[in-house]
Design brief:
The complex is a heterodimer of chains A (375) and B (527).
Chain A: E1 2-3, E2 6-12, H1 18-42, H2 47-60, H3 62-87, H4 95-112, H5 124-153, H6 157-176, E3 202-203, E4 206-207, H7 209-226, H8 228-238, H9 240-245, H10 250-274, H11 286-292, H12 294-302, H13 307-330, H14 337-352, H15 354-357, E5 358-364, H16 368-372
Antiparallel strand pairs in A: 1-2, 2-5, 3-4
Chain B: H1 4-12, E1 25-36, E2 40-51, E3 56-60, H2 66-73, E4 81-86, E5 89-91, H3 96-101, E6 104-107, H4 119-124, H5 136-150, H6 165-178, E7 183-187, H7 195-210, E8 214-219, H8 223-229, E9 232-237, E10 240-246, H9 252-260, E11 278-288, E12 294-304, E13 308-312, H10 319-327, E14 334-339, E15 342-343, H11 349-355, E16 357-360, H12 375-379, E17 390-391, E18 394-395, H13 397-410, H14 427-439, E19 445-449, H15 457-472, E20 476-481, H16 484-490, E21 493-498, E22 501-502, E23 506-507, H17 513-520
Parallel strand pairs in B: 3-8, 3-9, 6-7, 7-8, 13-20, 13-21, 16-19, 19-20
Antiparallel strand pairs in B: 1-2, 1-4, 4-5, 9-10, 11-12, 11-14, 14-15, 17-18, 21-22, 21-23
Classes of the chains: A mainly alpha (375), B alpha/beta (527).
């Protein structure tokens, strides 16, 4: 394309340094916020006031920040659960089901130890360790079903994980609602409340699961950047026939990534229902958290499967979902504004990924004389 | 639906091809220049003329700019600079459709046909006449008339998947001619044909030129073919025309030297190697192809240390299934494979790598490499399990990087460095990395599936030398090739394959090219 003697064209990038990718993401966020401010402005609201309310509450208000961090931890686990299969070219859409089962298993441990009836005698470290292990295991098992079917008979993993979500959703309903073994004695459609010894300890006001998030980020980073297993997963994700040629076992990779992904989603369930202060039960609204876990998929996709970048995206969306809801109430904004804003940012982030692959070159139009100088 | 965008110039010059005189310039490309991202000059002010009734070969290595030039002539790419004139009329092709309407036809190296459809349907597909009701009878007659005129044998009602590569090529040519092509661009026209088919094709091309058509074959490495058919040769190197000459004045040596830029040794020195003990013994091995049909039937042979077994055959005669079954990529349906006396018929692919088998697949981009990975990561494909580079599950990327640099040096790979994505490499360099990676493991058995296919003269020579080197180092080599000259010059034993069977195993000293040519064409079975 030529404009006023300048030649504008697109060129495919051959590589992209990490800092540039980060810069484009920040620009994308600013651009998305700018676009959305037009909507606020159109509605007669001051964008500045609204953003101040959203970000101020989400990140600079001590109460809001705690809510944000709790969401963030949840989203981070859900993102990891998506990323690991994603790097193998497989789509885990089963985070809701996996986290429901993770939560059920954690509560199951307490139930078996007599925690529902207040007869639990086991010490806090033992109970919590068992709860975490149970959540990991249960998530891994339900996730592993999809991996097994994929590896053995090439059954579409998206369909399997989605269908398992419905089964898990109804299993939770069976367990916690009227007459279910985990039913709250008050019968409010919730599970029993965890006894003191089964509640996750807080560190500086935040659940200890925050540390797990950081440790897992390092572990996943090392897995893909340094380890043979991560290499095999990546090779399989980029080119399955080539990976097979190189001796990678497609069956085991499929099973393994779904075991790992499911286990991490199980942790998300454990975190929200057993570690967030003030919850400590499988809430009546557990379906909402199932839906929220799909944001893990979005975080994973926006960050292109990079576990470090994912955390920033998860923090942003965790904050926006908290801050947006608060601003909506405080400033009497329309219903769903928080989700609309998150949607706008997602679109903007995805659109800006264009610049990961292309750069725009503007040169003065080449004449035959100048062109020859290139040589 | 009418397409107003390009309807105008085409309608206007519909009669451009009337009254052609032999020898008249029918296509004139001037100063064609194309620059790719990263500043690579693929075509640098290329001037190129073709006259009516002329076969004008364009010769050049991979990456010399041939593909770019032909894509420009066929409207797939637009040049940054330069002009193209067809019969003196300046043209500006925005798409192949424009080029086709101006009488330019192209036959791709990788045939672009719909396998499930008939020949007739493929020829009509996308043809302007096929919009609306098709007069099948009339079309069939027209196609048969074209085929007869140029001596092609084609059954319009046959299904494409049943055809051989040579027959598919004929379909592509007839398709182009049916659309009124006056200038026919052929990309590597004989690369997949048997000697018999090649001869037949060349005869038809001769006939075409008598009707004042221009034919432009693009060729990377079959120099004897250039000499046999063309009138003129234009040689490209690094995007520039290095020479234009009449074929009558050229020899293979001259062409090769100009193309590569240095003298090329044609007679590979095959050192004397004393064969050692058997490395691989194959007994009655059978396997199915992807359609589930038995495509490898009771193959039996032995290859010893320091020997090359050349498996000759036209594509689709079971060689591919043989290679994949040996490497474990395809299950054996019957028979067994002994590797150093050990039965490996049911061992995993990884086990075979670890035992000392090495395989370079024919599908270099689909199977042999991972385009989105760097060179280092691609080299890791054969080393991620190796104790030298895998310490307790962690890969030694530093060591792998050194290894990659070593391979780049030893195999003379042209690349900016070991950290670029492998998809940026040209075909020849990609093959060098794959071969280098496999040979660096010093495998006891090398299975090389079409190792030099599509490579230019220089890279072909290099790859062949490396295979001979492996042989000198006491490796057993199974070389699968469709190029009989290659088979004859490298092998110690030759196994021609036809329809899944090894017809015979002949010591190289007693092999005759015509006899092997007949065997792989199925003409020699009863004897």
């Amino acid at each position: 394309m030529t404009v006023a003697g300048y030649h504008i064209r697109l060129q495919r990038r051959t590589n992209l340094p990490g800092w540039k990718a980060a810069l484009f993401s920040i620009l994308a966020i600013l651009f998305g916020l700018f676009l959305f401010s037009l909507i606020f402005w159109q509605a007669g609201q001051s964008p500045r006031e609204i953003y101040k309310q959203i970000f101020g509450y989400a990140f600079f208000n001590s109460y809001g920040l705690r809510l944000t961090i709790n969401r963030f931890i949840f989203l981070a686990f859900a993102s990891y659960a998506f990323i690991i299969p994603y790097r193998a070219g497989l789509w885990n859409i089963g985070m809701p089901g996996q986290l429901y089962l993770g939560a059920l298993a954690a509560f199951g441990v307490v139930y078996l130890l007599g925690g529902k009836t207040g007869e639990m005698t086991a010490s806090q470290p033992v109970v919590i360790t068992l709860m975490v292990l149970a959540a990991l295991l249960a998530g891994a098992l339900i996730g592993g079903i999809a991996g097994f079917l994929k590896g053995k008979w090439n059954v579409n993993e998206i369909v399997v994980t989605m269908m398992l979500n419905f089964i898990a959703f109804n299993l939770v309903a069976f367990m916690i609602k009227d007459g279910g073994p985990f039913m709250n004695l008050g019968g409010r459609g919730e599970s029993f409340e965890l006894p003191e010894a089964a509640r996750a300890p807080l560190i500086a006001g935040f659940p200890y699961t925050l540390i797990l998030v950081i440790l897992l980020m390092i572990a996943i980073y090392l897995l893909f950047a340094r380890m043979s297993l991560g290499y095999q997963i990546r090779a399989f994700g980029k080119n399955p026939p080539a990976a097979r040629y190189a001796g990678v076992n497609p069956f085991w990779i499929s099973v393994l990534v779904f075991l790992l992904g499911g286990a991490l989603a199980g942790l998300a369930g454990y975190h929200y229902f057993a570690a967030v202060p003030g919850v400590y039960k499988i809430a009546r609204t557990y379906g909402y958290f199932g839906d929220l876990s799909f944001y893990g998929m979005i975080c994973g996709l926006i960050s292109l499967g990079n576990p470090i970048a994912t955390l920033f995206v998860a923090l942003l969306f965790g904050g926006l979902s908290i801050g947006g809801r608060s601003a909506q109430g405080k400033l009497h904004l329309g219903f769903g504004v928080d989700y609309a804003l998150m949607g706008m940012l997602m679109i903007s982030l995805v659109a800006f990924q264009f610049f990961y692959h292309y750069q725009i070159l503007i040169t003065k139009q080449a004449t035959p004389a100048t062109a020859r100088q290139y040589e | 639906m009418p397409r107003t965008r390009d309807a105008e110039p085409i309608e206007l010059h519909g009669d451009i091809w009337k009254h052609i005189q032999p020898g008249e310039v029918i296509l004139d490309a001037r100063g064609i220049t194309k620059r790719y991202p990263g500043g690579v000059l693929a075509n640098d002010h290329i001037d190129f003329k073709i006259r009516a009734g002329e076969i004008h070969a364009i010769l050049g290595e991979n990456g010399a700019g041939k593909t770019t030039l032909m894509s420009i002539l066929f409207g797939l790419l637009q040049p940054d600079e330069g002009e193209i004139y067809v019969r003196g009329l300046k043209v500006n092709f925005r798409s192949p459709e424009d080029a086709i309407k101006m009488g330019i036809g192209m036959v791709h190296q990788h045939r672009k046909l719909v396998p499930a459809h008939t020949v007739l349907e493929n020829i009509l597909l996308g043809h302007p006449k096929s919009r609306g009701v098709i007069n099948v009878k009339e079309a069939e007659e027209e196609i048969e008339a074209i085929a007869q005129r140029y001596g092609f044998r084609v059954d319009p009602r046959a299904r494409v998947w049943q055809l051989t590569e040579g027959e598919k090529q004929v379909v592509e040519i007839v398709k182009a001619l049916y659309r009124g092509a006056k200038i026919l661009i052929l990309d590597e026209p004989t690369s997949a044909l048997t000697p018999v088919e090649t001869e037949r094709l060349l005869e038809s091309i001769e006939t075409m030129t008598q009707e004042a058509l221009g034919v432009v074959p693009f060729i990377t490495h079959k120099l004897p073919m250039v000499l046999a058919i063309s009138d003129q040769v234009t040689i490209l190197r690094r995007g520039r025309v290095v020479d234009r000459l009449e074929t009558a004045k050229a020899t293979e040596q001259i062409l090769a030297q100009k193309m590569v830029g240095r003298p090329v040794i044609f007679d590979l020195q095959k050192p004397d190697v004393t064969p050692g003990k058997p490395v691989i013994q194959v007994e009655n091995l059978s396997a199915r192809n992807n359609k589930g049909v038995i495509a490898l039937k009771n193959a039996s042979f032995t290859v010893r240390e320091g020997e090359i077994l050349g498996v000759a055959g036209v594509a689709g005669n079971g060689q591919h299934e043989l290679a994949e079954t040996l490497m474990g990529l395809r299950p054996a349906e019957g028979g067994r494979i002994l590797f150093e006396g050990q039965d490996i018929t049911h061992r995993s692919i990884l086990d075979r790598w670890k035992l000392g088998l090495g395989y370079t697949p024919a599908e270099r981009t689909e199977v042999g490499s991972i385009g989105d990975f760097t060179l280092v990561e691609n080299v890791a494909m054969n080393y991620y399990f190796d104790k030298r580079y895998n310490h307790a599950g962690f890969l030694d990327y530093g060591g792998l990087r050194q290894l990659t640099e070593q391979i780049i040096e030893d195999f003379d790979v042209a690349t900016p460095g070991p950290d670029v994505k492998i998809q940026t490499l040209s075909g020849g360099n990609l093959q060098k990395i794959i071969l280098g990676r496999v040979l660096s493991r010093q495998p006891k058995l090398v299975i090389a599936n079409l190792p030099a296919q599509g490579l230019d003269v220089g890279a072909t020579e290099f790859v062949q030398r490396k295979l001979l080197e492996a042989r000198s180092n006491q490796a057993a080599v199974i070389l699968i090739s469709e190029d009989l000259d290659e088979i004859l010059s490298l092998s110690d034993w030759i196994a021609p394959m036809y329809e899944g069977e090894i017809v015979d195993i002949i010591p190289a000293a007693e092999a005759r090219k015509d006899l092997i040519g007949a065997m792989i064409a199925g003409l020699h079975r009863e004897n």
